[in-house]
């Protein structure tokens, strides 16, 4: 597929990219090369090929999706400059 400079200028405008007029032919050529590569990829037969997450076969670690408080309240509050009654204490910002 061939992209002309007018189309390249429109794409640049839609993407809000400033491109000088003398750079438009090179940009159009790059767009054309990208689209040609995509057409090549579309010609590849991928029937029966399963999508993969990684090149090494492995199972992702899973944990129970349970809401907890982390059981580390005292450790978290130990970093606070001021903590009261189990919460961070902050200065009053409104009267």
UniProtKB/TrEMBL annotation:
<dbReference type="InterPro" id="IPR036113">
    <property type="entry name" value="Asp/Glu-ADT_sf_sub_c"/>
</dbReference>
<comment type="subunit">
    <text>Heterotrimer of A, B and C subunits.</text>
</comment>
<keyword id="KW-0067">ATP-binding</keyword>
<dbReference type="GO" id="GO:0016740">
    <property type="term" value="F:transferase activity"/>
</dbReference>
<comment type="function">
    <text>Allows the formation of correctly charged Asn-tRNA(Asn) or Gln-tRNA(Gln) through the transamidation of misacylated Asp-tRNA(Asn) or Glu-tRNA(Gln) in organisms which lack either or both of asparaginyl-tRNA or glutaminyl-tRNA synthetases. The reaction takes place in the presence of glutamine and ATP through an activated phospho-Asp-tRNA(Asn) or phospho-Glu-tRNA(Gln).</text>
</comment>
<dbReference type="GO" id="GO:0070681">
    <property type="term" value="P:glutaminyl-tRNAGln biosynthesis via transamidation"/>
</dbReference>
<keyword id="KW-0648">Protein biosynthesis</keyword>
<dbReference type="GO" id="GO:0050566">
    <property type="term" value="F:asparaginyl-tRNA synthase (glutamine-hydrolyzing) activity"/>
</dbReference>
<dbReference type="InterPro" id="IPR003837">
    <property type="entry name" value="GatC"/>
</dbReference>
<dbReference type="GO" id="GO:0050567">
    <property type="term" value="F:glutaminyl-tRNA synthase (glutamine-hydrolyzing) activity"/>
</dbReference>
<dbReference type="Pfam" id="PF02686">
    <property type="entry name" value="GatC"/>
</dbReference>
<comment type="similarity">
    <text>Belongs to the GatC family.</text>
</comment>
<keyword id="KW-0436">Ligase</keyword>
<dbReference type="GO" id="GO:0006412">
    <property type="term" value="P:translation"/>
</dbReference>
<protein>
    <recommendedName>
        <fullName>Aspartyl/glutamyl-tRNA(Asn/Gln) amidotransferase subunit C</fullName>
        <ecNumber>6.3.5.-</ecNumber>
    </recommendedName>
</protein>
<keyword id="KW-0808">Transferase</keyword>
<dbReference type="GO" id="GO:0005524">
    <property type="term" value="F:ATP binding"/>
</dbReference>
<keyword id="KW-0547">Nucleotide-binding</keyword>
<dbReference type="GO" id="GO:0006450">
    <property type="term" value="P:regulation of translational fidelity"/>
</dbReference>
């Amino acid at each position: 597929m061939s992209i002309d400079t007018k189309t390249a200028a429109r794409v640049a405008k839609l993407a809000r990219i400033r491109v000088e007029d003398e750079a438009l032919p090179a940009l159009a050529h790059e767009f054309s090369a990208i689209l040609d590569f995509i057409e090549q990829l579309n010609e590849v037969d991928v029937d029966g090929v399963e999508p993969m997450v990684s090149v090494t076969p492995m199972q992702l670690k899973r944990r129970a999706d349970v809401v907890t408080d982390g059981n580390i309240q005292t450790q978290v509050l130990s970093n606070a400059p001021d903590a009261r009654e189990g919460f961070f204490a902050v200065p009053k910002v409104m009267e």
